[in-house]
Amino acid sequence: MNVVTLAGGIGGARFLRGLRATVDPRSSTITVIGNTGDDLTLHGLRVCPDLDTVMYTLGGGIDEERGWGRADETWQVKEELAAYGVEPAWFGLGDRDVATHLVRTRMLDAGYPLSAVTEALCVRWSPGVRLLPMSDDRVETHVLVDLPEGRRAIHFQEWWIKHGARLPAAGFVPVGAEDATPAPGVLAAIAAADVILVAPSNPVVSIGVILAVPGIRDAIRSAAAPVVGLSPIVGGAPVRGMADACLAAIGVDSSAAAVGQHYGARAGGGGGGGLLDGWLVHDGDADTTVPEVRVLAVPLLMTDPAAAAAMARAALDLAADLSR
Ligand code: FO1
Known about the structure:
Number of helices: 12
CATH topology of the largest domain: Rossmann fold
Low-confidence stretches: none
Structural class: alpha/beta
Bound molecules: ligand FO1
Radius of gyration: 19 Å
Shape: globular
Helix content: 25-40%
Mean pLDDT: 96
Strand order of the largest sheet: 5-2-1-9-10-13-14
Protein backbone atom coordinates (compact mmCIF):
# COMPACT_ATOMS: atom_id res chain seq x y z
CA MET A 1 0.00 0.00 0.00
CA ASN A 2 1.42 3.39 -1.01
CA VAL A 3 0.52 6.08 1.52
CA VAL A 4 1.18 9.75 0.76
CA THR A 5 0.91 12.28 3.58
CA LEU A 6 1.00 16.08 3.50
CA ALA A 7 2.70 17.21 6.73
CA GLY A 8 4.11 20.26 8.44
CA GLY A 9 6.10 20.28 11.67
CA ILE A 10 5.57 18.97 15.14
CA GLY A 11 1.99 17.64 14.95
CA GLY A 12 2.59 16.19 11.52
CA ALA A 13 5.80 14.49 12.61
CA ARG A 14 4.17 12.89 15.64
CA PHE A 15 1.34 11.64 13.49
CA LEU A 16 3.83 10.18 10.99
CA ARG A 17 5.54 8.27 13.79
CA GLY A 18 2.17 6.66 14.51
CA LEU A 19 1.52 6.01 10.81
CA ARG A 20 4.91 4.32 10.41
CA ALA A 21 4.10 2.07 13.36
CA THR A 22 0.81 1.11 11.72
CA VAL A 23 1.79 0.13 8.20
CA ASP A 24 3.79 -2.97 7.28
CA PRO A 25 7.05 -1.76 5.68
CA ARG A 26 7.31 -5.04 3.75
CA SER A 27 4.19 -4.25 1.78
CA SER A 28 3.76 -0.49 2.22
CA THR A 29 5.57 2.74 1.49
CA ILE A 30 5.05 6.12 3.14
CA THR A 31 5.87 9.26 1.19
CA VAL A 32 5.80 12.54 3.09
CA ILE A 33 5.27 15.80 1.19
CA GLY A 34 6.82 18.25 3.63
CA ASN A 35 6.18 21.97 4.06
CA THR A 36 9.14 24.21 3.23
CA GLY A 37 7.40 27.55 3.74
CA ASP A 38 8.90 27.78 7.23
CA ASP A 39 12.41 27.72 5.75
CA LEU A 40 14.80 30.61 6.30
CA THR A 41 18.42 31.55 5.82
CA LEU A 42 20.06 32.41 9.12
CA HIS A 43 23.71 33.49 9.55
CA GLY A 44 24.27 32.19 6.03
CA LEU A 45 22.79 28.77 6.81
CA ARG A 46 19.65 27.34 5.19
CA VAL A 47 17.27 26.06 7.85
CA CYS A 48 14.29 23.80 6.99
CA PRO A 49 12.34 23.51 10.26
CA ASP A 50 9.49 21.27 9.15
CA LEU A 51 11.65 18.89 7.12
CA ASP A 52 14.10 18.65 10.03
CA THR A 53 11.29 18.11 12.54
CA VAL A 54 9.98 15.15 10.50
CA MET A 55 13.50 13.80 9.93
CA TYR A 56 14.55 14.09 13.58
CA THR A 57 11.24 12.82 14.98
CA LEU A 58 11.19 9.72 12.76
CA GLY A 59 14.97 9.31 13.01
CA GLY A 60 15.01 9.32 16.80
CA GLY A 61 16.95 12.58 17.18
CA ILE A 62 14.15 14.95 18.17
CA ASP A 63 13.90 16.74 21.49
CA GLU A 64 10.58 15.30 22.64
CA GLU A 65 9.74 18.11 25.03
CA ARG A 66 10.27 20.97 22.53
CA GLY A 67 9.03 18.96 19.59
CA TRP A 68 11.68 20.59 17.40
CA GLY A 69 15.49 20.54 17.26
CA ARG A 70 17.81 17.92 18.58
CA ALA A 71 17.77 15.95 21.81
CA ASP A 72 20.74 16.58 24.15
CA GLU A 73 21.21 19.94 22.46
CA THR A 74 23.64 22.67 23.54
CA TRP A 75 23.54 26.34 22.55
CA GLN A 76 27.18 27.51 22.47
CA VAL A 77 27.01 28.86 18.90
CA LYS A 78 23.81 30.74 19.73
CA GLU A 79 25.40 32.23 22.85
CA GLU A 80 28.57 33.19 21.04
CA LEU A 81 26.56 34.88 18.26
CA ALA A 82 24.62 36.79 20.91
CA ALA A 83 27.91 37.84 22.52
CA TYR A 84 28.86 39.39 19.21
CA GLY A 85 25.49 41.15 19.18
CA VAL A 86 24.66 39.37 15.95
CA GLU A 87 20.96 39.37 14.97
CA PRO A 88 18.61 37.63 14.91
CA ALA A 89 19.10 36.34 18.45
CA TRP A 90 15.54 35.04 18.82
CA PHE A 91 15.94 31.86 16.78
CA GLY A 92 16.83 28.71 18.73
CA LEU A 93 19.94 27.62 16.86
CA GLY A 94 21.28 24.48 18.52
CA ASP A 95 24.87 23.27 18.13
CA ARG A 96 23.88 19.80 16.90
CA ASP A 97 21.26 21.35 14.62
CA VAL A 98 23.92 23.64 13.12
CA ALA A 99 25.64 20.58 11.66
CA THR A 100 22.49 19.75 9.70
CA HIS A 101 22.30 23.31 8.38
CA LEU A 102 26.01 23.26 7.45
CA VAL A 103 25.63 20.04 5.46
CA ARG A 104 22.44 21.31 3.79
CA THR A 105 23.95 24.69 2.93
CA ARG A 106 27.13 23.29 1.43
CA MET A 107 25.13 20.85 -0.71
CA LEU A 108 22.75 23.60 -1.87
CA ASP A 109 25.76 25.81 -2.63
CA ALA A 110 27.24 22.93 -4.64
CA GLY A 111 24.09 22.96 -6.76
CA TYR A 112 22.13 20.05 -5.33
CA PRO A 113 18.36 20.61 -5.21
CA LEU A 114 16.66 20.57 -1.80
CA SER A 115 15.10 17.18 -2.58
CA ALA A 116 18.56 15.63 -3.11
CA VAL A 117 19.87 17.33 0.03
CA THR A 118 16.94 16.01 2.07
CA GLU A 119 17.48 12.51 0.72
CA ALA A 120 21.17 12.73 1.65
CA LEU A 121 20.43 13.93 5.20
CA CYS A 122 17.89 11.10 5.60
CA VAL A 123 20.60 8.52 4.84
CA ARG A 124 21.92 9.22 8.32
CA TRP A 125 18.53 9.41 10.03
CA SER A 126 16.72 6.54 8.27
CA PRO A 127 13.27 7.98 9.04
CA GLY A 128 11.53 4.97 7.46
CA VAL A 129 9.60 7.22 5.05
CA ARG A 130 10.49 9.00 1.82
CA LEU A 131 10.65 12.66 2.79
CA LEU A 132 10.08 15.01 -0.13
CA PRO A 133 10.08 18.78 0.12
CA MET A 134 6.93 20.18 -1.48
CA SER A 135 9.21 22.01 -3.94
CA ASP A 136 12.90 22.49 -4.69
CA ASP A 137 12.12 26.13 -5.33
CA ARG A 138 12.33 28.70 -2.57
CA VAL A 139 8.98 29.40 -0.92
CA GLU A 140 8.96 31.41 2.31
CA THR A 141 5.80 32.19 4.22
CA HIS A 142 5.52 35.79 5.29
CA VAL A 143 2.93 37.19 7.66
CA LEU A 144 1.17 40.51 7.03
CA VAL A 145 1.08 42.48 10.28
CA ASP A 146 0.14 46.04 11.17
CA LEU A 147 3.01 47.74 13.00
CA PRO A 148 3.10 51.35 14.24
CA GLU A 149 4.97 52.24 11.05
CA GLY A 150 2.26 50.59 8.96
CA ARG A 151 1.55 47.19 7.38
CA ARG A 152 4.59 45.00 7.03
CA ALA A 153 5.36 41.46 5.85
CA ILE A 154 7.60 39.63 8.31
CA HIS A 155 9.02 36.12 7.95
CA PHE A 156 6.80 33.45 9.48
CA GLN A 157 9.55 32.41 11.91
CA GLU A 158 9.89 35.96 13.22
CA TRP A 159 6.14 36.15 13.71
CA TRP A 160 5.98 32.67 15.26
CA ILE A 161 9.06 32.77 17.49
CA LYS A 162 10.01 36.41 18.17
CA HIS A 163 6.41 37.57 18.49
CA GLY A 164 4.88 34.27 19.64
CA ALA A 165 2.13 34.73 17.00
CA ARG A 166 0.75 37.48 19.26
CA LEU A 167 0.90 40.12 16.50
CA PRO A 168 -2.52 39.91 14.82
CA ALA A 169 -1.93 38.54 11.36
CA ALA A 170 -3.78 40.21 8.51
CA GLY A 171 -2.80 37.41 6.17
CA PHE A 172 -0.16 34.93 5.07
CA VAL A 173 1.80 35.10 1.84
CA PRO A 174 3.78 32.05 0.66
CA VAL A 175 6.36 34.16 -1.15
CA GLY A 176 7.58 32.41 -4.28
CA ALA A 177 4.83 29.79 -4.36
CA GLU A 178 3.35 31.01 -7.62
CA ASP A 179 6.66 30.38 -9.40
CA ALA A 180 7.39 27.10 -7.64
CA THR A 181 7.00 23.64 -9.09
CA PRO A 182 6.41 20.42 -7.12
CA ALA A 183 9.66 18.68 -6.22
CA PRO A 184 10.64 15.62 -8.25
CA GLY A 185 8.51 12.66 -7.24
CA VAL A 186 5.73 14.65 -5.60
CA LEU A 187 3.13 14.45 -8.39
CA ALA A 188 4.09 10.87 -9.23
CA ALA A 189 3.68 9.82 -5.60
CA ILE A 190 0.23 11.42 -5.45
CA ALA A 191 -0.82 9.71 -8.68
CA ALA A 192 0.45 6.31 -7.48
CA ALA A 193 -0.98 6.62 -3.98
CA ASP A 194 -3.45 4.11 -2.58
CA VAL A 195 -4.23 6.52 0.26
CA ILE A 196 -3.60 10.24 0.66
CA LEU A 197 -3.60 11.64 4.20
CA VAL A 198 -3.63 15.25 5.36
CA ALA A 199 -1.77 15.20 8.69
CA PRO A 200 -3.04 17.18 11.70
CA SER A 201 -0.71 20.06 10.88
CA ASN A 202 -1.39 23.79 10.74
CA PRO A 203 -4.05 24.13 8.01
CA VAL A 204 -2.82 27.59 6.97
CA VAL A 205 0.96 27.79 7.14
CA SER A 206 1.74 24.09 6.71
CA ILE A 207 -0.96 22.30 4.68
CA GLY A 208 -2.11 25.54 3.05
CA VAL A 209 1.41 26.38 1.89
CA ILE A 210 1.97 22.90 0.45
CA LEU A 211 -1.29 23.32 -1.49
CA ALA A 212 -0.12 26.73 -2.72
CA VAL A 213 2.51 25.05 -4.91
CA PRO A 214 0.88 24.98 -8.35
CA GLY A 215 -0.18 21.49 -9.36
CA ILE A 216 -0.33 19.83 -5.95
CA ARG A 217 -3.95 20.63 -5.13
CA ASP A 218 -5.13 19.56 -8.59
CA ALA A 219 -3.09 16.35 -8.41
CA ILE A 220 -4.76 15.45 -5.13
CA ARG A 221 -8.23 16.32 -6.44
CA SER A 222 -7.75 14.07 -9.47
CA ALA A 223 -5.99 11.25 -7.61
CA ALA A 224 -7.55 7.76 -7.66
CA ALA A 225 -6.78 7.36 -3.95
CA PRO A 226 -9.20 8.36 -1.20
CA VAL A 227 -8.16 11.53 0.64
CA VAL A 228 -8.56 11.53 4.42
CA GLY A 229 -7.64 14.42 6.69
CA LEU A 230 -7.18 14.59 10.45
CA SER A 231 -8.31 17.67 12.31
CA PRO A 232 -5.58 19.61 14.13
CA ILE A 233 -8.34 21.36 16.07
CA VAL A 234 -9.76 19.50 19.03
CA GLY A 235 -12.68 20.96 20.95
CA GLY A 236 -12.27 24.38 19.37
CA ALA A 237 -8.55 24.77 19.97
CA PRO A 238 -5.35 23.50 18.39
CA VAL A 239 -3.70 20.70 20.30
CA ARG A 240 -0.48 22.73 20.24
CA GLY A 241 1.00 25.58 18.29
CA MET A 242 -1.01 28.55 17.16
CA ALA A 243 -3.21 27.25 14.38
CA ASP A 244 -6.08 29.25 15.87
CA ALA A 245 -4.19 32.53 15.35
CA CYS A 246 -3.53 31.50 11.74
CA LEU A 247 -7.13 30.42 11.11
CA ALA A 248 -8.50 33.66 12.57
CA ALA A 249 -6.35 35.61 10.12
CA ILE A 250 -8.06 33.93 7.17
CA GLY A 251 -11.52 34.09 8.71
CA VAL A 252 -11.89 30.40 9.52
CA ASP A 253 -13.28 29.40 12.91
CA SER A 254 -11.11 27.20 15.10
CA SER A 255 -13.32 24.16 14.89
CA ALA A 256 -13.00 20.75 13.32
CA ALA A 257 -16.05 21.52 11.18
CA ALA A 258 -14.70 24.85 9.96
CA VAL A 259 -11.30 23.41 9.06
CA GLY A 260 -12.99 20.49 7.30
CA GLN A 261 -15.08 22.92 5.29
CA HIS A 262 -11.97 25.03 4.64
CA TYR A 263 -10.26 22.02 3.07
CA GLY A 264 -13.54 21.28 1.30
CA ALA A 265 -15.13 18.20 -0.19
CA ARG A 266 -13.55 16.64 -3.24
CA ALA A 267 -16.96 15.26 -4.29
CA GLY A 268 -19.62 17.36 -5.86
CA GLY A 269 -17.27 18.70 -8.55
CA GLY A 270 -17.95 22.38 -8.53
CA GLY A 271 -15.44 25.15 -8.22
CA GLY A 272 -14.92 24.45 -4.53
CA GLY A 273 -11.59 22.86 -5.25
CA GLY A 274 -12.08 20.70 -2.19
CA LEU A 275 -9.73 17.94 -1.18
CA LEU A 276 -11.42 15.67 1.29
CA ASP A 277 -13.33 12.42 1.05
CA GLY A 278 -12.99 11.72 4.78
CA TRP A 279 -12.33 13.81 7.88
CA LEU A 280 -11.30 12.50 11.30
CA VAL A 281 -12.39 14.62 14.24
CA HIS A 282 -11.87 14.16 17.95
CA ASP A 283 -14.35 12.17 20.02
CA GLY A 284 -15.63 15.34 21.64
CA ASP A 285 -16.43 16.85 18.24
CA ALA A 286 -18.61 13.93 17.13
CA ASP A 287 -21.43 16.28 16.09
CA THR A 288 -19.21 17.67 13.34
CA THR A 289 -20.59 17.57 9.83
CA VAL A 290 -18.86 18.60 6.61
CA PRO A 291 -21.05 18.53 3.48
CA GLU A 292 -20.16 15.63 1.18
CA VAL A 293 -17.34 14.46 3.45
CA ARG A 294 -17.48 11.30 5.57
CA VAL A 295 -16.75 12.40 9.16
CA LEU A 296 -15.48 9.94 11.76
CA ALA A 297 -14.97 10.75 15.44
CA VAL A 298 -12.02 9.03 17.14
CA PRO A 299 -9.57 10.02 19.90
CA LEU A 300 -7.24 12.54 18.25
CA LEU A 301 -4.94 13.43 21.13
CA MET A 302 -1.45 12.14 20.34
CA THR A 303 -0.60 11.64 23.99
CA ASP A 304 1.91 8.95 23.08
CA PRO A 305 3.08 7.05 19.99
CA ALA A 306 0.41 4.36 20.56
CA ALA A 307 -2.32 7.02 20.39
CA ALA A 308 -0.83 8.39 17.17
CA ALA A 309 -0.74 4.86 15.74
CA ALA A 310 -4.42 4.36 16.60
CA MET A 311 -5.29 7.61 14.84
CA ALA A 312 -3.33 6.56 11.77
CA ARG A 313 -5.06 3.17 11.82
CA ALA A 314 -8.46 4.86 11.98
CA ALA A 315 -7.56 7.12 9.06
CA LEU A 316 -6.40 4.16 6.95
CA ASP A 317 -9.53 2.18 7.84
CA LEU A 318 -11.74 5.09 6.82
CA ALA A 319 -9.80 5.37 3.56
CA ALA A 320 -10.35 1.64 2.94
CA ASP A 321 -14.06 2.12 3.63
CA LEU A 322 -14.18 5.02 1.18
CA SER A 323 -12.46 2.89 -1.46
CA ARG A 324 -15.18 0.28 -1.38
N1 FO1 B 1 10.20 27.08 17.51
C1 FO1 B 1 10.17 27.96 18.55
O1 FO1 B 1 9.08 28.21 19.08
N2 FO1 B 1 11.29 28.60 19.00
C2 FO1 B 1 12.51 28.39 18.43
O2 FO1 B 1 13.52 29.00 18.85
C3 FO1 B 1 12.60 27.44 17.36
C4 FO1 B 1 13.81 27.14 16.75
C5 FO1 B 1 13.85 26.13 15.78
C6 FO1 B 1 15.07 25.71 15.25
C7 FO1 B 1 15.10 24.69 14.31
C8 FO1 B 1 13.92 24.08 13.90
O3 FO1 B 1 13.95 23.06 13.00
C9 FO1 B 1 12.68 24.48 14.42
C10 FO1 B 1 12.64 25.50 15.35
N3 FO1 B 1 11.43 25.91 15.91
C11 FO1 B 1 11.39 26.81 16.93
C12 FO1 B 1 10.15 25.37 15.38
C13 FO1 B 1 9.87 26.15 14.12
O4 FO1 B 1 9.57 27.48 14.41
C14 FO1 B 1 8.73 25.53 13.29
O5 FO1 B 1 8.67 26.19 12.09
C15 FO1 B 1 7.38 25.62 14.03
O6 FO1 B 1 7.38 24.68 15.00
C16 FO1 B 1 6.23 25.41 13.05
O7 FO1 B 1 6.34 24.14 12.45
